[in-house]
């Protein structure tokens, strides 16, 4: 069974959203530069192992926030899969579409956005294979 491992919150005003989530829930927020000059804010809702970045508490997940776009306008859950390429083929075979093709997140893994049958955007995550 493939598990939800990450969530993302699209926002209109990043500074305002960061202040809200930090003040309300105490979440730790860290900005990361992305390809093409975009900004991505990592959200830590639970402590992680600093070597693996895996949450220490079973079942807990962390997330991120980014600028809202027409393609990603509502919260997204990311599901860990064995192969993003394999699952993209399954999504397309189900009549759904790829919103963002497989993208490498340096040193971590691969990510893609796809739609489900209800036109919701979901993320597909594949861990980087370590030698």
What does this structure look like?
With 131 residues, this protein is of the alpha+beta class. Helices cover 17% and strands 40% of the residues. It is built from 2 helices and 8 strands. It has helices at residues 14-25, 84-93; strands at 4-11, 28-33, 39-44, 62-67, 76-80, 98-105, 109-115, 121-127. It has an 8-stranded mixed sheet with strand order 2-3-4-1-5-8-7-6, with helices on one face. A hairpin with a 3-residue loop joins β6 and β7.
Question: How do you describe this structure in short?
Answer:
It is built from two helices and eight strands. With 131 residues, it is of the alpha+beta class. Strand 2 and strand 3 (39-44) form a beta hairpin.
List key phrases describing it.
single chain, 131 residues, alpha+beta, eight-stranded mixed sheet, 8 strands, 40% strand, globular
Topology:
Blueprint: E1 4-11, H1 14-25, E2 28-33, E3 39-44, E4 62-67, E5 76-80, H2 84-93, E6 98-105, E7 109-115, E8 121-127
Parallel strand pairs: 1-4, 5-8
Antiparallel strand pairs: 1-5, 2-3, 3-4, 6-7, 7-8
């Amino acid at each position: 069974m493939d598990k939800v491992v990450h969530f993302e919150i699209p926002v209109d005003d990043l500074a305002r959203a960061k202040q809200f989530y930090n003040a309300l829930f105490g979440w730790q927020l860290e900005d990361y530069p992305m390809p093409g000059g975009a900004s991505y804010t990592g959200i830590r809702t639970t402590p992680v192992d600093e070597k693996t970045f895996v949450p220490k508490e079973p079942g807990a997940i962390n997330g991120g926030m980014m600028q809202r776009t027409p393609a990603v306008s509502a919260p997204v859950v990311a599901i860990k899969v064995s192969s993003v390429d394999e699952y993209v083929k399954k999504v397309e075979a189900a009549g759904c579409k790829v919103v963002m093709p497989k993208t490498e997140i340096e040193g971590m893994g691969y990510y893609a956005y796809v739609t489900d049958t209800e036109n919701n955007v979901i993320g597909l995550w594949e861990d980087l294979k370590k030698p």
